[in-house]
Amino acid sequence: MKIRSLAVMLAGLSVVLGSAIANPAKAQTKNNNTYYCAQLDGNWNTFVNTPRGRVTLINWANKFSETWTPQKRCSTISQRFQNFLDDGNLKFIRTGEINKMPVLCVANARGGACPEDNVLITLKPGTDPEGVLIRLVDFRRSVSGQTLTLSADDAGFYSGGEFYVDMDKFIESVPVNN
Description:
Residues 1-27 form the signal peptide. Residues 1-29 and 140-151 have low confidence and may be disordered. The longest helix has 21 residues, at 2-22. Helix content is 33%, strand content 28%. The chain has helices spanning 2-22, 24-28, 70-86, 129-137, 167-173; strands spanning 34-40, 43-50, 53-60, 92-98, 101-107, 119-122, 156-159, 162-166. It has five helices and eight strands, in the order H-H-E-E-E-H-E-E-E-H-E-E-H. By secondary structure, it is α+β, with helices and mostly antiparallel strands. It has two domains: 1-31; 32-173, no CATH class. The strands form two sheets. A five-stranded antiparallel β-sheet has the order 6-5-4-8-7.
């Protein structure tokens, strides 16, 4: 009886491991992170719940336009983060330009493109998207304006002249809220 139970457990484990090997992108989405929009101290924020705790990702302080209020942008973009994660595509974030507008988008691979279907956030014309992306991941930098230093262990890196953020590394290293 014990041997049969062990055989059933091993068979179940091989199915789980086999599906993770056969479809690593989908297996990676099992990281239990959840992106959502909520108010904190009167401001709309995009949060991510991780196994380590809650992370405040973006504070939506400014109105993009009359129709794109902080609440609407927070809700829409938080849902985009979650959809990309659920689809197994939230690996890298990079900058780009779509319809002559600066954007942050999801790239499926290091050095990947920024197609229109992968737009995460559209920024106002004239905004430096690389600066926005660097500020997003530079959580260790103090307000004093110290120089940003990127090392091989950092979530942010350059590839082909474009700045990318490895979302797995970023979420693993960003401080959680108390």
